[in-house]
Write a structure and sequence with these properties.
The complex is a heterodimer of chains A (about 140) and B (about 290).
Chain A: H1 14-17, H2 43-48, H3 50-57, H4 62-70, H5 72-79, H6 83-90, H7 94-100, H8 104-113, H9 118-126, H10 130-135
Helix pairs in contact in A: 3-8, 4-5
Chain B: E1 7-15, H1 19-26, H2 36-39, H3 43-52, E2 56-61, E3 76-79, E4 83-84, E5 99-100, H4 103-115, E6 121-123, H5 130-139, E7 150-155, H6 165-180, E8 186-193, H7 210-222, H8 224-228, H9 232-239, H10 247-254, E9 260-268, E10 275-282, H11 286-292
Parallel strand pairs in B: 1-8, 2-7, 2-8, 3-6
Antiparallel strand pairs in B: 1-10, 3-7, 4-5, 9-10
Helix pairs in contact in B: 1-5, 4-6, 6-10
The chains are: A mainly alpha (about 140), B alpha/beta (about 290).
Chain lengths: ~140, ~290
């Protein structure tokens, strides 16, 4: 997957949506038996997510945050994100990004630019409303 | 207190490093009911540091994609810088002064670690993120920042392959040897940071297990080598994917005497992460001799 590859209209390339990573042999992590609801940033998934991760990372610069505020669509295009990557961002599809290969710490840089807090991204990843998620926590106002 | 003219590990601290904690402290929320049970756990740590007056803190934390990016991501890294800037994590810098380092011992430590075949990346510039700033902010109230220099040690826990729990424990042991070989008075406190059970991504976001967290706290004190034998798979299954950062507590524990005196332990789970604080006092090398005998 070269960085410049543009997805074909219609059919989405398999590498964009496939979640599984080819089993890696490791005595420390059992890649043949992934933990449900858990997506480690490694292997092909980490490589697939690299460009979008780099995009998230750019939000450490105040000038990027200003540029994003002024013209988010323009900044995504300028960065060279694929159509699928742009759609993940536009839809604030946090779980989609996790499956794609983005570390949550990258996502928090981006979600902050949307004014969305960490636990709101988490509730969305679980497929719950923020209110329902908060009901499962011990203390409501410690965030 | 160590009067000897050589380096000495005097104790170890365990602390979470979640950014919400540092932000709550720095914005004066520490007396609110939601936060008080946690911040009350920092008071004994503040008092202990005041009483022990260490010359150096070695703080083990992980980068959160602020000092490093996946273009080149070190398994282990350390800083020899004289001073550390505050990282802008994506929403502005924390309003705290730059954190002093310890270049002289830093270079000595780097050499000692590589001599012992711990091939750590050596950094002359390392902006610090909440991994360091949260525990340091809580150990040192605003008027006390920062009277102790800090050597940051970085462990990759974000992008597997992640170093094994045993490797982290052994890194702690190598740090102890480096400190003890230093031919000047240097009282060192080791700090292991990280949340206990938590998972910040996927449908399993928000996973916790308080019983396991308490077992972890027992084991890190009394039987850390059992933890050092655990795989990342086991740690993640028991405590959530991000609890794998508990391996950084093992660096701290590995630097201490086999037996330690626990003088503080606190646990609190308000939201998504098991927060724990401990103070372990070092019992010196006689416990090593006793074990070997």
């Amino acid at each position: 997957m070269s960085m410049g590859t543009k997805p074909q209209a219609g059919a989405r390339p398999r590498w964009e949506t496939e979640v599984e990573i080819l089993p890696i042999q490791s005595r420390l992590i059992d890649f043949e038996h992934p933990i449900a609801g858990t997506y480690l940033v490694t292997g092909a998934r980490a490589q697939r997510g690299y460009r979008l991760s780099k995009f998230c990372m750019s939000f450490m610069k105040p000038e990027v945050r200003a540029k994003w505020k002024a013209d988010s669509e323009g900044y995504m295009r300028e960065f060279g994100l694929s159509d699928y990557e742009q759609s993940l961002i536009r839809e604030q599809n946090w779980i989609g990004m996790i499956r794609y290969g983005i570390s949550p710490f990258m996502i928090f840089k981006l979600s902050a630019a949307f004014g969305v807090g960490q636990n709101r991204t988490g509730a969305a990843m679980r497929g719950e409303s923020y209110e329902d998620f908060m009901k499962t926590r011990n203390v409501k106002d410690a965030s | 207190m160590n009067a000897a003219q050589h380096g000495c590990i005097i104790g170890g601290l365990g602390s979470p490093h979640a950014p919400s904690i540092g932000v709550a402290y720095n914005t004066g929320k520490h007396e609110t009911p939601a936060w008080k049970p946690l911040f009350d756990g920092y008071r004994p740590m503040q008092a202990w540091l005041e009483a022990k007056k260490p010359d150096l803190l070695i703080v083990v934390a992980n980068d959160h994609a602020n000092s490093f990016f996946f273009d080149r991501y070190p398994t282990f890294a350390m800083s020899v810088a004289a001073e550390h800037e505050i990282a802008d994590e994506g929403w502005g810098k924390w309003p705290v002064p730059p954190v002093p380092g310890h270049s002289e011992f830093g270079w000595q430590l780097a050499h000692a670690l590589v001599d012992q075949e711990f091939d750590i990346a050596v950094c002359q510039e390392m902006p610090l993120d909440h991994g360091w700033l949260t525990p340091l902010s809580c150990f040192f109230p605003p008027e006390k920042r920062w009277w102790v220099p800090v050597i940051p040690i970085v462990v990759n826990v974000l992008q597997p392959p992640i170093p094994s729990a045993k490797r982290c424990f052994d890194l702690g042991r190598a740090i102890r040897r480096a400190v003890e070989a230093y031919p000047k008075k240097l009282d060192v406190v080791m700090v292991g940071t990280g949340g206990l059970s938590h998972q910040l991504s996927g449908e399993r976001y928000g996973f916790n297990d308080t019983a396991w967290d308490n077992e972890f706290l027992d084991l890190v004190e009394t039987d850390p080598e059992r933890l050092a034998r655990m795989t990342h798979q086991q740690l993640m299954e028991k405590g959530g994917a991000d609890s794998v950062e508990e391996i950084m507590w093992l660096v701290m524990r590995g630097a201490l005497s086999p037996k330690v005196r626990r003088v503080h332990r606190n646990y609190y789970l308000p939201m998504v992460t098991g927060f724990a604080q401990v103070i372990f006092e070092d019992l010196g090398d006689e416990t090593v001799a006793r074990k070997a005998a």
